[in-house]
Write a structure and sequence with these properties.
Length: 346
């Protein structure tokens, strides 16, 4: 038996997933369904026990049966010792501190995969840049997975697709093979910056769509925000060296549409709470899961100003989160902007 508890020849790849939240658990299931051995980190003993004995994560997916290839542990050293892939799904703003603890145990050759969709608030760094800065792992061994992937639907085995971005095309192709299942179809690209910016910014736009929904505005307003939000994202991406085509694909428009349209979306739900009159603190309690756009909006707006890019939707969302604008005032601010051509560079 291997140190992880499986017969050595039975599994294709050993995958360590941090941690057992909704998206981490869903992707643990995907990797296991693709035929790999998966070890999932959980902080609480009762979660570990439920996964290992009942094959269920009752906190996030009650009733969803996890494959036998998914095991759980609270022991980070044990988990990392045999991992060929380290899949990170933690709140973006905690990544740096977590890596400071975990980094020394990441073995040479392990490919680190980021599932996170945020920008570090203090530095403006994307998640792949934080991983590189803290651990020293070369970018060729850091991959990003991003796309229209609502965790509940993926956990249920509903059809979904995503994009794997890595500077090393061979590494991206190997990871693609490791998580390809009949219901989960990954594509590859080398545009890491585009995928990360698309994933982070769509959360802010989803907050705006939620605000509009909470105010009782209709489908026209939602379509307006989604379309103009995509334009904001593409402008920022182009200014930061991303491939413009990325934003018309799964990691751009696809992710944006899913996150802005679904009631399963945390960020849209958070925005809807605000639109209905809850304070930010009340919305945090009501949502009860991390809405990355709430933390990342300030960093994204800072990047936009740094690169001379206009992002009016991001600006009003940030003002609402900071308490410098009311929800109705934000809507009025957007609608009262001076007319412009639909396509412009700033």
């Amino acid at each position: 038996m291997s140190r992880w508890g499986w017969n050595g020849g039975c599994r294709v790849v050993r995958v360590a997933v941090f941690s057992a939240g909704s998206w981490g658990t869903a992707m643990a299931k995907v990797f296991a369904d693709a035929g790999n051995g998966v070890m999932l980190y959980a902080r609480r003993d009762e979660v570990v026990d439920a996964i290992n004995t009942r094959h269920e994560n009752p906190r996030y997916f009650p009733g969803v049966v996890l494959p036998s290839g998914v095991r759980a542990t609270t022991n980070t050293t044990f988990l990392l010792s045999g991992a060929q892939y380290l899949v990170l799904s933690v709140p973006a703003q905690t990544l740096r501190d977590n890596l400071a603890d975990w980094g020394p145990y990441i073995r040479p050759g392990t490919v680190v995969v980021s599932l996170m969709k945020g920008i570090e608030t203090d530095t403006g760094l994307r998640m792949s840049q934080v991983i590189h800065e803290v651990t020293g792992i070369p970018f060729e061994r850091i991959a990003v997975l991003s796309g229209p992937n609502l965790a509940r639907e993926v956990a249920d085995g509903q059809p979904a697709a995503s994009v794997i971005a890595c500077p090393d095309e061979a590494a991206a192709a190997a990871l693609q093979n490791a998580c390809h299942t009949p219901y989960f179809r990954p594509y590859t690209t080398t545009d890491v910056a585009g995928c990360e910016l698309g994933g982070a910014t769509k959360n802010v736009i989803a907050l705006a769509v939620g605000l509009a929904t909470g105010l009782g505005l209709g489908d026209n307003a939602q379509a307006l925000l989604i379309t103009r939000g995509l334009a904001e994202t593409a402008r920022l991406g182009a200014a930061m060296g991303a491939d413009p085509l990325t934003f018309s694909g799964l990691a751009g428009a696809g992710d944006l549409i899913a996150t802005c349209s679904s009631p399963l979306s945390r960020n849209r739900t958070f925005g809807e709470h605000l639109g209905k009159g809850l304070t930010v603190e009340e919305a945090v309690r009501a949502t009860n899961q991390t809405a990355e756009g709430v933390k990342s909006c300030r960093a994204i707006l800072h990047l936009a100003r740094e690169h001379g890019v206009e992002m009016p939707i991001t600006e009003v969302v940030t003002a609402v989160i900071d308490g410098t604008a009311t929800v109705t005032g934000a809507a009025e601010a957007l609608l009262s902007r001076s007319p412009k051509p639909e396509l412009y560079e700033a």
